[in-house]
Design a protein that fits this description.
The protein is α/β, with parallel strands linked by helices and 331 residues long. 37% of the residues lie in helices and 15% in strands. The protein binds iron/sulfur cluster (SF4). Residues 66, 68-70, 73, 75-76, 113-114, 173, 292 line the site of iron/sulfur cluster.
Length: 331
């Protein structure tokens, strides 16, 4: 099939095969074919979200050296960026969530390091849920140990989870990929919505690996998928491998959109930017607190973007902003 035919296939909601996805990934990111892919994906994203982008707020509940040792993460113990464990007081976490909501975030996500125990997370979730508007989705990005508490997450008012099998999971991390897949199955079985991503993209990942991961995320029927590039952590082994240019990120974002079912209404990219947005990204994340891509303890003093900056990026991309609760997590 030609590129034009594969774009048509994606626009009509027919699944792309791993071979077709790999073929599309093989074009240079600045080629005419890649720009065709970005145009098709952008049109599809706008159609599925009524041309209204969203900006969600992510806040970290804790910061700790993590034994799961994902080499791309600043929390990995052996990366020695953070050496002491701290956690945000509950009232501060609630204030951060409410602040995000007040400035227009359509959904709030709380994040923890992998081993921050469910019993310690639960009081935060209860307190945040009690203060957010009833229809503002509350999302959790938590460790695999929480998958055994998936139904309790639902009872606490959590609407969904972000949980991804990362590229080279089990090789660049201490986590067996099957453990991540099992957790996703448990979260979904409890009725939690799922957000995923193809991440963290580096220059060492082959088109075949990326294609298989895009195809896997499509098989999960998530509320969103997307593509995120790795942010090199200075002084680390993986940091030395570098990252991919934003134009390649945009190409992968576009192909991911076209390969997803249309029940996956949203397409994510991280870190946010106008150029990756050209690939049809339809929502961005604002961040507060710790951040696995940052080397400062409060990312709002570092790499993070705030809601206003992200809304401006969407303006540059000629998107409108959705007002009110998220359509993505309410799908
Ligand atoms: S990505 Fe998560 S599991 Fe991996 S080291 Fe960082 S906090 Fe731990």
């Amino acid at each position: 099939m030609s590129v034009t035919e594969l774009i048509e296939k994606g626009l009509n909601g027919y699944p792309l095969t791993p071979t077709e996805i790999e073929y599309l990934l093989g074009f240079p990111p600045y080629s005419e074919e890649s720009f065709q892919l970005m145009a098709g994906a952008s049109a599809l994203s706008r159609q599925l979200q009524h041309n209204e982008a969203e900006v969600h707020g992510q806040l970290a509940l804790n910061l700790a050296p993590c034994p799961e040792e994902c080499q791309f993460c600043s929390f990995a113990k052996s990366n020695k960026i953070f050496t002491t464990a701290t956690e945000v007081p509950i009232d501060e976490a609630v204030a951060m969530a409410c602040q995000f909501e007040q400035v227009g975030c359509q959904a709030i996500l709380v994040m923890t390091t992998a081993n921050f125990a469910f019993k310690r997370i639960a009081p935060y979730l209860a307190a945040i849920r009690a203060r957010l508007k009833k229809d503002t989705p509350l999302i959790a990005n938590v460790g695999d140990q929480c998958a055994d508490h998936a139904e309790e997450l639902v009872q606490l008012g959590v609407n969904g989870v972000y949980h991804a099998v990362r590229l080279r999971e089990g090789i660049d991390t201490n986590i067996p990929p099957q453990q991540r897949r099992d957790s996703i199955a448990k979260f979904k079985a409890a009725g939690l919505q799922l957000g995923v991503c193809v991440e963290p993209l580096g220059p060492e990942h082959s088109d075949q690996e990326i294609a298989e991961m895009i195809h896997y995320t499509a098989s999960l029927n998530p509320v969103f998928s997307g593509a995120a590039r790795r942010i090199p952590i200075p002084g680390t082994r993986m940091g030395a491998l570098g990252t991919i240019p934003e134009i390649r990120q945009a190409q992968v974002v576009a192909i991911t959109r076209l390969a997803m079912p249309h029940t996956t209404i949203a397409n994510c990219t991280h870190e946010p930017g106008v150029l990756p947005g050209m690939g049809g990204a339809s929502f961005f994340w604002a961040e507060m607190g710790a951040n696995p891509r940052d080397t400062v303890a409060r990312t709002e003093d570092g790499r993070a973007h705030n809601v206003s900056e992200l809304e401006t990026m969407f303006w540059e991309l000629d998107w409108k902003i959705q007002h009110g609760p998220s359509r993505i997590w309410s799908a």
